[in-house]
Design brief:
Elements lengths: L1 H11 L10 H10 L5 H15 L7 H12 L5 E4 L12 H9 L6 H6 L6 E6 L5 H12 L3 E4 L11 H15 L3 E5 L2 H5 L8 H15 L4 E7 L17 E5 L4 H14 L9 H7 L5 H16 L11 H9 L4 H4 L1 H12 L4 E2 L4 H14 L6
Helix pairs in contact: 1-3, 8-10, 11-12, 11-13, 12-14, 13-14, 16-17
């Protein structure tokens, strides 16, 4: 930070150079340049000035684009600019509040106060409940670049290549920090066992050690669907600040999810019976609810009597009735995940209503005759 600030200060004092930054804005620009070499920083600051004649907060996007170029050097990392907002995710209020409390945890005031930098979170749960979307939301909420680590791309055919790819990818993530490192479906790449001569285990151990020892501001968001494939040492305290379980959405959450997707299609919410939709979508995950809205749009658009009409509550209800929700098709797998939560191994990301739903679900599993 100090070295980049000195580069910016030297550039600012150059005759003819215009810099329009408050103290806070200057801090944002310098922080956004973290990870660039001194030559890269000088070049991007100068490029920002030449582009519109002044260096101000609007140039943070240009600096981020320079970081994106660095990320492309690694085939295992993919860069996402922060675009998702907290309003794009329905429900998960417990998780959202946890993130809000740590929104300022990376700034200088938090360091002076003595707070450690957040390490990361693990998101465990049912497919389609918004784990990947949450990773993008963290990036948008904290205004940090999001980097997705493709664990499968780390493995190479030559001896030692996988370990070298892992070290290079993790070093690169630290280079562009502060950032959010998203490890999607971590169980697929880091599950125990395998017949690869121990390569996957060595890669796994390298990542575990780095997660424990890293000092750079890289916040990890690891998602997983199948907990049975995860080695127990991955989820112990110290590697993550918290482990959240994303369950089937509650009634209130389903209503919020409908609001998000109807609003995203630029339709007035008052035209839809959200309470009726939320009740009808019991047992549906967020991805299934979104698909029901999309299917309803297709129904209305291709209506034979009134082509291109606006989709209605009835269209969405019909689309829901044609789906087989995951809570029905994968009932046993979901019951096992909820049993894992009930043993106190994670914190629910949802409202307290989720606890009641969980108990009801367990009762249904015990007494199938009450299912209907």
């Amino acid at each position: 930070m100090e070295e980049l600030a000195a580069i910016l200060e030297k550039l600012s004092s150059t005759p003819g150079v215009r810099v329009d930054l408050t103290e806070q804005g200057r801090d944002k620009v310098v922080r956004s340049a973290l990870g660039l070499s001194s030559n890269q920083a000088q070049r991007v600051f100068a490029k920002a000035i030449v582009s519109d004649g002044v260096l101000d907060e609007r140039d943070i996007g240009l600096i981020t684009a320079e970081k994106k170029q660095i990320i492309r050097e690694s085939g295992a990392l993919e860069f996402f600019a922060p675009t998702e907002t907290i309003g794009d995710v329905g429900g998960l209020e417990v998780l959202k509040e946890w993130l809000r409390m740590r929104e300022q945890a990376f700034n200088r005031e938090a360091r002076d106060y003595g707070l450690p930098q957040p390490k990361g979170i693990a998101l465990i749960g049912i497919p389609g409940t918004g784990k990947s979307l949450t990773a993008k939301m963290v990036s948008g909420l904290w205004r940090m670049p999001l980097i997705r680590l493709d664990v499968g791309a780390l493995f190479g055919g030559l001896v030692g290549q996988s370990e070298e790819n892992t070290r290079r990818a993790l070093n690169l993530a630290e280079t562009v920090s502060p950032c959010v490192l998203w490890i999607d479906e971590i169980e697929k790449g880091l599950s125990a066992g395998g017949l690869d001569g121990g390569t996957s285990m060595r890669v796994f151990q390298s990542i575990l050690t780095w997660m424990q020892e890293k000092t750079k501001p890289v916040f990890i968001v690891a998602t997983a669907n199948n907990i049975s494939m995860l080695p127990p040492e991955l989820l112990r305290r110290g590697r993550f600040d918290e482990i959240f379980f994303l369950d089937l959405p509650t009634t209130r959450e389903r209503r919020e999810i409908f609001e998000v997707h109807i609003r995203k299609r630029k339709r007035p919410l008052q035209n839809y019976d959200l309470d009726r939709l939320a009740a009808a979508a019991e047992g549906y995950v967020g991805a299934e609810i979104e698909q029901a809205v999309i299917d309803a749009m297709y129904l209305a658009f291709s209506d034979k009597e009134t082509p291109g009409r606006d989709f209605t509550t009835e269209d969405i209800l019909f689309a829901l009735s044609r789906q087989v929700p995951m809570s029905r098709s994968q009932r046993e797998a979901i019951a096992a995940l909820r049993q894992w939560l009930s043993e106190g191994r994670a914190q629910s990301a949802s409202f307290t209503e989720a606890k009641q739903a969980e108990q009801q679900f367990v009762q249904i599993e015990i007494n199938p005759s009450k299912t209907e």
